[in-house]
């Protein structure tokens, strides 16, 4: 949409240095970092709150380190959360240890399980001390504003009508179904995933304790997370088979679940209908180009991750930190050039590719084999047998999952508070 020929006259307009679209982990962290740097920035979130049916809630040591570097860690860890240090699996009836985070030489050697809405609300509240940061809820970006070939901001829908936001730089953090990506004409390279996820909760009582993380049987796989007063469950199905599972009926699904995880026997009554079961369509993709003049895409908008390893939130946070590190100083003076914007892709593409490659290996060697089913017993891959048998090896997958490839540290400067 050209700025001089709008489709619908805006009821309001505003101008900022940077407009961030999407109030997820990437958007809220980047908004905080740019606000901290004294840059006039607005974050748009289309919903009235951060509560969602499915949002990743694993906060890894790499993100905990970022929170520490920002001086936020003490307050953050006071929020209700559970901690995970060891990741154990049951494959074909044999228990294996996948990773041991206690072996990591890091300040926070654990994964914190915390509802993502608590994390995002915490960042929003912490950011209120920065006068240059504004978060607009119930504000949905519906189009780009263009000035010739340059992106000059976004048009947003609000409860009070249309709002035009002129911005020197627009950053799309609006997820794997990014509106701004589509409006900018950028397409993702699809890598593919053999599975989808059924996401649901089962009640938990204090006497129900189990350290198993993943369960794999011929034709079936599921993951369970102890969330204090409930079990968060991810039941893995073959890609595109949701209708088939649904046709079998809810009792058949829940019978399979309880057979795999007897600890859920009492709490599974919380799943009363398929309305309590949310389908997560798994995708792995990435953009070849993350920019247009005046526009940058990061997080899921630039690269959708598989749930394998639960790393999506943390990759998004790393993108945000790298973006602030590379662009904040230049952005304080005006819009970075497209080559300067592309420095973010050049910095982050290697970690993304390496992480996605790891996810594809797990998909092809464990998940796809498990979902094939059949009567033949599952064979535990050699690498998992070695990791489980040799404790010193358990720090390797732990580091890959918890720290990641080329972790980012906060280098952007904080402006004096007025």
Automatic annotation (TrEMBL):
Keyword field: Oxidoreductase
Magnesium is among the record's keywords: no
Domain of life according to the entry: Bacteria
Keyword Oxidoreductase: yes
InterPro entries: FAD-bd (IPR002938), FAD/NAD-bd_sf (IPR036188), PheA/TfdB_FAD_monoxygenase (IPR050631)
Domain FAD-binding as annotated: residue spans: 16-349
Official protein name in the record: FAD-dependent oxidoreductase
């Amino acid at each position: 949409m050209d700025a001089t020929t709008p489709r619908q006259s805006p009821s309001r307009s505003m101008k900022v240095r940077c407009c961030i679209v999407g109030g997820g982990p990437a958007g809220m962290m980047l908004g905080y970092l740019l606000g901290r740097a004294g840059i006039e920035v607005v974050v748009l979130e289309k919903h009235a709150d951060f509560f969602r049916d499915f949002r990743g809630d694993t906060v890894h040591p790499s993100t905990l380190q970022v929170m520490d570097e920002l001086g936020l860690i003490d307050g953050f860890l006071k929020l209700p959360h559970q901690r995970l240090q060891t990741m154990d699996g049951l494959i074909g009836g044999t228990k294996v240890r996948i990773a041991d985070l206690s072996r990591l030489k890091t300040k926070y050697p654990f994964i914190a399980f915390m509802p993502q809405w608590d994390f995002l609300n915490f960042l929003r509240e912490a950011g209120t001390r920065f006068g240059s940061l504004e978060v607009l809820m119930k504000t949905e970006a519906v189009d780009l504003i263009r000035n010739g070939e340059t992106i000059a901001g976004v048009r947003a829908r609000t409860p009070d009508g249309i709002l035009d936001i002129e911005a020197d730089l627009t950053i799309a953090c609006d997820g794997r179904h990014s509106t701004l990506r589509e409006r900018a004409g950028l397409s993702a390279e699809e890598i593919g995933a053999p599975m989808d996820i059924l996401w649901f909760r089962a009640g938990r009582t204090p006497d129900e304790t189990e350290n198993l993380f993943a369960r794999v049987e011929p034709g079936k796989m599921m993951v369970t997370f102890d969330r204090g007063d409930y079990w968060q469950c991810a039941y893995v199905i073959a890609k595109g088979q949701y209708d088939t599972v649904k046709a079998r009926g809810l009792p058949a699904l829940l019978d399979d679940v309880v057979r795999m995880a007897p600890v859920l026997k009492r709490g599974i009554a919380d799943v009363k209908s398929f309305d309590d079961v949310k389908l997560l369509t798994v995708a792995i993709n990435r953009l070849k180009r993350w920019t247009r003049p005046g526009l940058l895409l990061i997080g899921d908008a630039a690269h959708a991750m598989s749930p394998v390893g639960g790393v999506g939130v943390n990759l998004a946070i790393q993108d945000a930190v790298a973006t602030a590190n590379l662009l904040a100083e230049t952005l304080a003076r005006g819009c970075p050039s497209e080559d300067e914007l592309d420095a973010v892709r050049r910095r982050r593409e290697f970690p993304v590719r390496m992480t996605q490659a790891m996810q594809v290996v797990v998909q092809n060697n464990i998940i796809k084999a498990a979902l094939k089913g059949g009567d033949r017993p599952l064979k535990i891959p050699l690498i998992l047998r070695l990791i489980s048998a040799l404790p010193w090896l358990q720090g390797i997958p732990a580091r890959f999952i918890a720290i990641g490839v080329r972790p980012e540290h906060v280098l952007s400067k904080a402006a004096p508070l007025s």
